[in-house]
Amino acid sequence: MSARATPYLDDLNPAQREAVEAMDGPVLMLAGAGTGKTKALTARIVHLLNTGRARPNEILAVTFTNKAAKEMKNRVSRMLGAPVEGMPWLGTFHAICVKLLRRHAELVGLKSNFTILDTDDQIRLLKQVIAANDIDEKRWPARQLAGIIDHWKNRAWTPSNVPNAEASAFNNRGTELYDQYQRRLLELNATDFGDLLLHVVTIFQTHPDVLEQYQRWFRYILVDEYQDTNVAQYLWLRLLAGAHKNICCVGDDDQSIYGWRGAEVGNILRFEKDFPGAKVVRLEQNYRSTEHILAAAAGVIRGNEGRLGKELWTEAEGGEKVRLIGHWDGEEEARWIGEEIEATQKGTRGMAPKSLDSMAILVRASHQMRAFEDRFLTIGLPYRVIGGPRFYERLEIRDAMAYFRLVVSPSDDLAFERIVNTPKRGLGDKKQQDIQVIARRNGVPLIEGARILLAEGGITGKGAGELRALVDNLDRWSRMTGHADVSHIELAEMILDESGYTTMWQNDKTPEAPGRLENLKELVKALENFDNLQGFLEHVSLIMDNETDEAGAKVSIMTLHAAKGLEFPVVFLPGWEDGLFPSQRSMDESGLKGLEEERRLAYVGITRAEEVCTISFAGNRRVFGQWQSQLPSRFIDELPQEHVEVLTPPGLYGGGYGAAAPGFEGITSTIDQKVAQTNVYNSPGWQRMQARAGNRPVSQPRETRSQVIDLEAVSAYTVGDRVFHQKFGYGAVTGIEGDKLDIDFEKAGSKKVVAKFVMASND
Ligand code: ATP
Ligand code: MG
């Protein structure tokens, strides 16, 4: 094939060209964000095809997500000026390994039509294995074992080569159970996610002929986001590239953000050792972001030790500084960002109007999405959530909502089915079927069916006790709706606690569990904007109705992890508060490893922005109905001052909060706002920031009418204290009993209320 024209090379700078044109032998492109690594990698594929070095199906190209694979395929077609017919081996590690494993399944004892278990199936199977070994699953939960096995698979350890150092895992039984689990999988002709890679590595290691076949077939290997490969992936690559060594990896040590999932940034450093004579290309020009954005990102990442250290520059001088703004709480932050997006859409601060597609909100934790989704629904702003379900679609949220639905309408059978055995109540499929049959026969809802089953003695033992407790609880909770003494927020907390649902996740040792608990807290927080459960449920069904994925421009909401490799003209980075970002876990850890990974995440976030980057934090977040004051993230302190513009939050100098706080009315609203103001502007972080930015001193709110008593401070109440309750107004404490207070309210009379729902008052 004769070489065709190469317009795609003209778009590259000399260093990129070098990486593209050096077709044979190992190449490592190690460069910072936005320097055109992915672009060069794509051009390299085009060049290999164009010069006839390889046919489309002889190129193995690994991307981090399926979305990235699709984009790369499109880009190749565009650069080539013709659609590529099939690049079957362009995809994620997993997608590629599924294909390989289907071809050679029998070599590891599987059939080619093996099934891939999802997490739920995997857990179910592990439970069976644990039970078969007479181990108490309550003390040694299946999810914990799943985490351990996953960790081992990421390191390419089969049951027989888990190192001795790990022998104590899972009460000394880990390795043995891992072995049994693998056998069960084979019997079921199934694999879990981690197996896909592990089996293929095993096949390559034990069948040199098969390995050789692929070493010959994949003439060229390319890998994007190389810094996030784990040991198993690394081994797999090294085996495949071992003969011809035509491997090109691109990555950025500063963007390694999957250490918690077993990725090893050390793989980058080992590359030159494993592939001696590798051509190492460094790229330093950033084509994505303006000067200030780049400098701000550089300022933050400089705080990490042991970096390879790369300096970036851009021709895009000037532009806007990174904008920094503090809000009094998370709802206000969401409201403000919504307004900014609408303004940007129309054109603001001298900028041309921008499409919603060019804007993104990148959050640290998925529970942060809820405030934005609610707000955008209210103002009718189209959005999409990338890389995960929307907030109200999450498993734990759907479960919790099913409980709420049942309490509001006991005949909601779908909700009943969903939660009758979640958490586990010893009700197997058979018993659940019995309930269905009885309900159908009598023409009554499932909950009634359950009652009949109990009355008829059709169920005995542990299951009977738990089912009765559930049915009775549901009744009791239903009676409490609309009860003046119990707010719907208290009721929701009660339901989640008493049903055992919260406990289920507290006992769960998987990495996702803390996030799910956060989401549940966030769900309760969302209730504060509504008068009762019913209103809330209606709101959510409205959101779900809005699901239809109609075309048209939309703002993107996603986690920082999901934003890797992407770019947007306008980026919002909310929630920069210690404990949220960096995460509490990383701050509690001894050593700097976790914190440094968070800092890389901050670097990834800022470097997604092309023109406008806005960082924000809230001075207060409400957790379970109480204010928690937040400190601005330590990463904010690390932003170089000369590249940052501190914005004045609305309402600070007498500006109105107006409709800032939906759901708060009258006096409550005033007090809450003042509380918030007090906390935000008294916080040391805020004062520090203002001082640095050279702003005039912040005046205190005119008067502080109340202070917030948090849970720990409950004992601070004494008989005779004057307090304020959102619903019942002012009153005096007449008695104290644990976390409950007897209060004589001026208008509402004597009541017992949970202490955390009142505020001390000086009025
Ligand atoms: P990340 O580390 O975030 O994945 P990256 O190094 O992969 O970034 P790319 O996404 O390839 O960077 O490129 C960033 C932007 O710069 C893209 O919009 C790309 O089109 C543009 N770009 C890359 N190289 C050049 C170049 N030589 N000339 C002009 N634009 C370029
Ligand atoms: Mg990239």
From TrEMBL:
Keywords: ATP-binding, DNA-binding, Helicase, Hydrolase, Isomerase, Nucleotide-binding. Its EC number is 5.6.2.4. It comes from Primorskyibacter flagellatus. The lineage of its organism: Bacteria, Pseudomonadati, Pseudomonadota, Alphaproteobacteria, Rhodobacterales. Belongs to the helicase family. UvrD subfamily. It catalyses: Couples ATP hydrolysis with the unwinding of duplex DNA by translocating in the 3'-5' direction; ATP + H2O = ADP + phosphate + H(+). Residues 291-565 form the UvrD-like helicase C-terminal domain. Has both ATPase and helicase activities. Unwinds DNA duplexes with 3' to 5' polarity with respect to the bound strand and initiates unwinding most effectively when a single-stranded region is present. Involved in the post-incision events of nucleotide excision repair and methyl-directed mismatch repair. One of its GO terms (biological process) is recombinational repair. This is DNA 3'-5' helicase. GO terms for cellular component: cytosol; DNA helicase complex. ATP binds at residues 31-38. Residues 10-290 form the UvrD-like helicase ATP-binding domain. The keyword ATP-binding applies. InterPro entries: DExx_box_DNA_helicase_dom_sf, DNA_helicase_UvrD-like_C, DNA_helicase_UvrD/REP, P-loop_NTPase, UvrD-like_ATP-bd. It comes from the Bacteria. The keyword Isomerase applies. One of its GO terms (molecular function) is 3'-5' DNA helicase activity.
